[in-house]
Amino acid sequence: MGGCPRLTVSLLLTLAAITAGAACRVEAQAWPTRPIRWLVPVAAGGATDVIARLLQEPVGQRLGTTIVVENRSGGAGIIATQATVSSAPDGYTMGLIYTSHVVNPSMQPNVPYDSARDISPIAFLWRAQLAFVVLADSPIKSLADLLAAARLKPGSLAYATGGVGTGAHLAAALFASVADISLSHAAYRGAALALNDMLGGHVPILVGNVLMLPPYVAAGRIRVLAVSGARRSPVLPDVPTVAELGFPNYEATEWSGLIGPANLPAEVAAQMNAAVNSAIKLSEVAEQYRKMGLEAIAMSPNQFRDFLIAEAAKYTDLIRKSGIKPE
Predict the structure, then answer these.
(1) Cβ(294)–Cβ(47) below 8 Å
(2) What is the pLDDT of residue 324?
């Protein structure tokens, strides 16, 4: 009988370990038990905000909770991301990021977090193409004409975008780099202002999101020379890609995704990822994406992390080589 107490203690320890493991699994499975905040890095009305509000109800339904959208605009997304990475890694505060996230370390002094180490990638939400646009009566009739004009007088041809470090600016700078041409950047405080000045004849080229262009194409006011994605845009299916026109490795898009703070439990990230990827397949959501010229791509958290690493590498190198400076 001398061995019985030791056997009993051992058995109790084993049972305790099993019970503790089961409790941990139950706790993980119990998430979420209260509303989840999504911090949006832009003001109401932009694509990042519109899609967050489009997805909040179907994602919440799939998780059995409420998604609360809060706008934390400013600082090229830094304000919202700082609030996200500073939150507890419990799955109840998440943030949306967009294209600027991967360039902020190169463009902004003293970013208060590490853009790679301090986040947990969760889900990819959308991407959108940019377009190279001129007035309908412009002497530039094609991308080849643009290249010829740029090479004739290097640096004299200007393009308008919605600001320094925007997706449009990066798309144009990347094109100039791969085409080995020099263009002049006219940065505006917003895409609408850039479009208006191009329509007014004050700047010869616009680089902007495809979403805002169809009405002007239909009215015969503009000519779209090329789009920036790997495939043609469903919004402008007759417009060739830059890749088709002689630059096969060129691709540049604007995009948005969902992140949490570092050390977010993998189970929580996986559940939110599954809910988002399911929601973006809904017919009514897909139709809204189509109307906005957005492309939905389902990625796992690890795939989204790989995407962020690749984007950061591409644009960090571009910013260094092009000498792009913040405003």
Answers:
(1) yes
(2) 85
Residue 28 has pLDDT above 70, yes or no: no
Structure tokens at 151: 């090479």
* 128-227: CATH class: alpha beta
Exposed e or buried b for every residue in 205-236, given b needs 16+ CB within 10 A? bbbbbbbbbeebbeeeebbbbbbbbbebbebb
Tokens linked to 136: 């309908």
**Mean pLDDT, all residues of the chain:** 90
| Residue with more model confidence, 34 or 320 | 34
In degrees, to the nearest 5, what angle opens at C-alpha 82 toward C-alphas 310 and 63? 80
Q: CATH homologous superfamily of domain 33-127+254-322?
A: Bordetella uptake gene, domain 1 (3.40.190.150)
DSSP structure string for 209-276: EGGG-HHHHHTT-EEEEEE-SSS--SSSTTSPBTTTTT-TT---EEEEEEEEETT--HHHHHHHHHHH
| DSSP single-letter state for residue 208 | E
Question: Which residue ranges does the chain devote to CATH 3.40.190.150?
Answer: 33-127+254-322
Per DSSP, the residues of 244-262 read TTT-TT---EEEEEEEEET
Distance (Å, whole) CA 94 – CA 115:
15
C-alpha to C-alpha distance for 252 and 235, rounded to whole angstroms = 16
pTM summary value = 0.84
